Amino acid sequence: MFGASISWVLRIVITAYLVYKFIVLVTRQNPTVTKTTGIRDASEEEPFQPQLGGFDFAFGLKGNLDPSIGYFTVQYIN
After folding, report:
1. Would you say residue 22 has pLDDT above 70?
2. For residues 23 and 53, what is the distance between their CA atoms, to the nearest angstrom?
3. What Rg value do the Cα atoms of the chain yield, rounded?
4. For 64, which DSSP code?
5. Alpha-carbon distance 51 to 42, whole Å?
């Protein structure tokens, strides 16, 4: 009888925790997760410096990369 009552208490606690986490998931109440989106116009005067934002590597696909910055190649391997 004692073991069965402990099992039921554990089931109730685990179910309550799962319901709580599901509510947090559905209502998006997690304050540690943020999404920041920044759109920058390419015609701005200042050059974009991704290293100041913590990026070690960045490139764009809409235009040719300035050769003084570097270059990249893409290979498709099937």
Report:
1. yes
2. 34
3. 26
4. P
5. 17
Distance, in Å, from the CA atom of 10 to the CA atom of 4, rounded to the nearest integer, reads 10
Pairwise CA distance, residues 9 & 60, whole Å: 56
* Tens digit of each residue's pLDDT (9 = 90 or more) over 37-61: 666 666 766 776 767 777 666 556 6
Q: Is the pTM of this model over 0.90?
A: no
- Residue given tokens 């490139």 in the structure block: 59
- Domain range for 33 is 2-42
Q: Report the chain's mean pLDDT, rounded to a whole number.
A: 77
Is 18 a domain residue?
A: yes
- The answer to whether residue 26 sits within a structural domain is yes
Terminal C-alpha separation, the chain: 63
Match 């300035």 to its residue by tokens: 66
9 assigned to some structural domain: yes
